[in-house]
Amino acid sequence: MTRCYLNIAIISFALLLRILVGIHPHSGQDDYQGPNNTPANSNTNKVKYGGDYEAQRHWMELTYHLPINQWYYHDLQYWGLDYPPLTAYVSWVFGFVAHHVGSFHDDKFIEEEKEVIIHEVCQLDDETCIEEQGTSDFKVRRYSKGLGVLKDLVALQSSRWGFEDSRGKLYMRFTVVISDLLIYISAVWVIVGRLTKQKESIPDTNIDDTIPTYLRPRLWLLLTALSQPALILIDHGHFQYNTLSLGLALWSFHFISSSTNEFGPIVGSILFSLALNFKQMELYHAPAVFAYLLGRCFRHANRYTHIIANFIALGVTVILTFAVLWFPFVIYPPSDATSNDGVLQIIKRVFPFQRGLFEGKVANIWCALSIKPFSIRSRIPENLLPLAALALTLVLILPPCWMLFKVGRGDKLKPLLTQPNDDSDIRLLLWGTASTSLAFFLASFQVHEKGILIPLTSISLLMLDAPNFVQFFSIAATWSLWPLLVIDRLTDAYICCLGIFLCINCMMKVSVSYDRLDIFSKRYITRYCPTLAWIVMILLHVLEMNVAPPSHLPDLYPVLWSFVGCGLFCLSYLATVWAMFAQFLGPSEKRVQKVKEKSKPRTRMSPISLLGLVLLSSYTKTNDAFVQHRNIHNSYTHSLRANSETDTVPSLFTDDLLERARRPLSWEEKVATEKKPVLNLSAVRNLDTLSLADGANMDDITDSNEIHCEQETDNWIDGHIWQATEQHLIDIGIMETEKILRSAPQLLRLPTKQVVEAVNFLHSYPTGKNSTDLINADPSLLTYLADDLRYGLEEYLPNMMFMGNQDTAAAQISNQFALSPSLGLQLIRMGIEGGLEERHISRALNDASTASSKATEGIVGEVGKSFKQLQRIKGRKS
Predict the structure, then answer these.
(1) pLDDT number for residue 172
(2) Residues near 514 by beta carbon (within 8 Å), at least 6 away in sequence
(3) CA-based torsion, 568, 573, 574, 576: positive or negative
(4) CA spacing 20 to 30 A to 55: which of 194, 466, 633, 849?
């Protein structure tokens, strides 16, 4: 019973840790792209929004709403699908659930109005709106869409560009947690049981009698494996589904290494094929799996026919699994493409060789050698870089693959003082997959910084074999992700997860069967390497916090992170190869004894503990360089109502939202451009004649880089303009005001009267769709002037497409909305933008005509004056 309770407690703790990290911002939240790439200085015409979170949400949207032959073709500029087919199918499932749950609750609104007496101002959430009546009577209107918002989460087109609703985020986070629990955590549970099976019978008199002896190794190994900070931060903070593919890979390792299950290799091949079809980076594990399975074909095979039969069985299994997953794309190609074209398109999307050798500042060999003075990419022709990467990767994976082949074949290893019935295959397979995945991460083509999670998955389960190395690699992998976590505003989560992991490792006390596998154990001179690594990591953190990089080297610290991380991972690769090699050498004759650590708590701090304490103390200090990183706003608990009696800025108004609100709208840019002089002759200061163009004075010229709204004093920042605008939107039944503000942040500063006029026009325009639904679908329509909306939809669009017939234009828009809301919105925006451009050109031509007329008058007058002066000089001679 104690065993059951302890295991449930560990899994509950792991889930709680994941949920708490999920409260932090996700990648690209509010389109935040890092402290050095704020919306204020970024390109306002970007083709996509956000980061990996928006990509995963968008894939649910397109896979559910579009036919399968459009999945890998649809709008590739906006987070086009670039993962294998199983990812697309899983996205379809999540999109299906979101759409149908949302549809089921779509019409279950709660609306009630009643008069109540409130004697103090309340802080209300986004589902409650209050209007003051007199002095103390308030009308309370409650309106909640509830789970109906999940339908909007995956709505085609209209959910793009920042669907930041808290319930939508909760659903997205839930899909990651449930995938983690059902696939990854369950696989870790099973493999931990196998790895600690022999240790359950090892007596230890120093262990408390209240905890069963057999629980201790399993307890600590399960706890450390499920508390890996890098994996938690990326999947549950940054937002990805890595645990799904990694869990499938671990399940495949369990089955293919099973010596008791005759069909284990077959089942394992199917599971690994699924993992490979979920995420292409599982190729990092593929050489190790192939080498081991190839060796298994020779095990217990008395004749070559048995070897060939085993190999064919595995090959057919893999081919059939791939065929089932890829067959729909073969039989349903795009209308203008063949079956082969459809498959080739998926391959091109999954393996984007055109993106270059690596992305970002990843801690691998190629990135480290790209800095001066090495500059490897300028020394090797671009077309040879993929071949160079392939050659180096093959060299690095050959040693572990050869040893795994021998393990799979059943070659007996020299005993490492383990139990006679020790199941060594799973342990060696974990070492081998860690080695090959590190080789791929260090040397292969197109590597991402998140690829370090693949070797980390295997290494995290080897804590009982090499505790010092596993601790070192876990911290180094998390540390290498720091530049990415800064962009995601996950610095607080980084510190907390590292602190928790360090505490767990400091408290852990288990027996180590043999320390020869641990390259950082006390028997080797390399035991000092982790201490040196901790010092370098801490030093770089302190330098980044206190010393700004030079202006000509803005990426100094990310490059240093990459260079140092590459050295740490190269050392880790050597450690994994050595651990496998040591198991073939056997124990030293001079040291044939069991090395057991003390089970009492440590009386001194380890270097790992020191690292955690320094990080925790350093980053809790107030420092201008990191305040912007830690300015995290909880998206689940935003209040949309500001206290009218205070001058504080509402919590919804983040720095990022305010910067986006300052961006000029397209019509504002056109108006600012029109204010510029057509002819700028302001340098001629001594002319007594009429200026060639009004507004030619330099003081009146507006720099195009400084175009902002007219309220340069930011007198709207306290939210009073938005408060009035929001109230009007609520009055007409538009309750998703948070979503509208995030999609069109300029509403913070636009006059309420202007927005009300736009709302009234949209309400009166016969689109065939309720005006509130139209505004919810595209809130940016409220940022246009009512005159521009009227001209675009009633003048420009009918004249350009429907021979001037306004009724026909309105009917066509209504029909388009009936077929597809996104197409209807595109038609409306085409009319509005076209009308804006036409009016802008018309005004520009009028200004040019006026300016040229005045210029002609000035030129004629100036020529007359010059002629008269010439006559006086020449004594009136012609």
Answers:
(1) 94
(2) 416, 417, 418, 465, 587, 594, 595
(3) positive
(4) 633
